[in-house]
Amino acid sequence: MGRSPCCDGEAGVKKGPWTPEEDKLLVDYIQEKGHGSWRRLPKLAGLNRCGKSCRLRWTNYLRPDIKRGRFTEDEEKLIIHLHSLLGNKWSSIATKLPGRTDNEIKNYWNTHLRKKLLGMGIDPVTHRPRTDLSLLAGLPGLLAAAGNFGGAGSATGAWDMHALRLQADAAKFQLLQGLVRALTTAAVPALAPGMDNLMAHLAASNGGQNGAGGVDQSMLLQQCQWDGMNNLPALTNSAPASGMHNISGMFDSFGAGDGLSSTELGCHGGASGSNVTVDAVAPPRPMVANDRDCNNNGGGGVSCEQTPASSPFDGLESLNLMDDLNTDGSWKDLLE
DNA sequence: AACCGAAGCAACCGCCCACGA
DNA sequence: ATCGTGGGCGGTTGCTTCGGT
């Protein structure tokens, strides 16, 4: 089954770190004669290495067009963007970053970017806002602020919700959604009063269009599909008019159903900056066949076989996410 | 100064596929 | 059709470095 490893049976072949002398032998040989057959190269070059090791050393480290040094911010953004499109296709990603190898990009992803995204509340696999409890760790300020709604003398809330709506771009808003879902599903009792107040305020500021008891079911269903959230309580028109069950729907209504214009949300078409380049808040993302959470297709919604030519969620991939990230991984100005 | 754990990264591993003999 | 070879690929390992105590 399959071919045997190239170095099997090659007794005495050296492994481990390459010495400068070995590097020089390899470089000198390739520059003079080309690599030719990698299997025969070690012997011809006077190296006690297997051919595969030589090839990897050359392609990942010794090649003259390799760019060493730290990744630039632009490179980081490009990697994140390409990863959202291609997944772990490191070689494909590497073709878009001249001088960088797939191995280098892969290592950088695993050691830096992955953690960075996690710190931002973004799932590094799906590139969607995380909905698990770990969100709680990064947003203490949000929780404190949520509590302000229930504070003395804050009947209208500590924030101007309209100002919040103007400032919140879609990604941040979805992060907020994720947090609320985490809270609702985790049922953190101590935080419930503050979040209830927050939700009530959102509903009030929403002009009652989809407010208490009027959650748009179809929208919520779609939201559940793209979010992979199959544990959200089913909502009906007879559902309780208030309480944690309506939180998710209220957020959806707040973001997508209240008539906010692209301008209001700071959205624009393709310009630079930290705003979203999709029209208004990104609508629910239809499932695609290769989504890992593709099994969350309850309720007769979009099927997994449907693969849209372009996903409205794709706009989020062009976010200048790093611009909005504090050194501790929290969002800048999330709720100012 | 010594120790220790975490982080970073080069290198390796094992599987796969394409291609030519 | 089969086999050997080259080489691409993603995942993993283990060594080195760094920072904290």
Automatic annotation (TrEMBL):
Residues 287-316 are annotated as: Disordered. One of its GO terms (cellular component) is nucleus. InterPro entries: Homeodomain-like_sf, Myb_dom, Myb_TF_plants, SANT/Myb. Residues 10-62, 63-117 form the HTH myb-type domain. This is Uncharacterized protein. One of its GO terms (molecular function) is DNA binding. Keywords: DNA-binding, Nucleus, Repeat, Transcription, Transcription regulation. Residues 10-62, 63-113 form the Myb-like domain. SUPFAM superfamilies: Homeodomain-like. It comes from the Eukaryota. The lineage of its organism: Eukaryota, Viridiplantae, Streptophyta, Embryophyta, Tracheophyta. Gene3D superfamilies: Homeodomain-like (1.10.10.60). It is found in: Nucleus.
